[in-house]
Amino acid sequence: MCELNALLVSGDKRELVMESVTRMLVDGESIELTGIFGDRKIVSGSIKEVDFSKGETIILGK
Q1: What is the per-residue pLDDT across 9-20, written as a single tens digit (0 to 9) for each?
Q2: How confident is the model at residue 2 (pLDDT cuts 50, 70, 90)?
Q3: What would the pLDDT profile of 19-48 be if each residue is shown by its tens digit?
Q4: Which residues contact residue 19 at a Cβ distance below 8 angstroms, ignoring those fewer than 6 apart?
Q5: Torsion over CA: 48, 25, 20, 14 (sign)
Q6: Cα-flanking dihedrals φ and ψ of residue 13, to 5°?
Q7: CA triplet 52, 21, 11: central angle to 5 degrees?
Q8: Terminal-residue alpha carbon distance, the chain
Q9: Which helix or strand (DSSP H or E) is residue 13 part of?
């Protein structure tokens, strides 16, 4: 299975929001992240990049 770490970027700040993300559901400026064990978190922003080789997705915060 392919999992990603979700990073929230605001200005010069990079924050790890969730590890082992298996699903991302985008609804406007809201992104629902679901982890490998079913845990969920909702963040506001937009997806800038998904890099499977690094195992991360970059979310630009609002």
Answers
A1: 999 999 999 999
A2: confident
A3: 999 999 999 999 999 999 999 999 999 999
A4: 3, 5, 6, 35
A5: positive
A6: -90, 130
A7: 75
A8: 30
A9: strand 13-27
Residue 4 CB neighbours (<10 A): 20
Q: Which of 46, 42, 41, 10 is nearest to 28 (CA)?
A: 46
The DSSP call for residue 32 is E
Nearest to 16 by CA among 38, 41, 53: 41
The predicted pLDDT at position 32 comes to 98
| Vertex 22: Cα angle to 50 and 59 (nearest 5) | 35
* pTM (two decimals): 0.91
Residue 53, amino acid: S
Q: Are 50 and 6 in contact (CB under 8 A)?
A: no
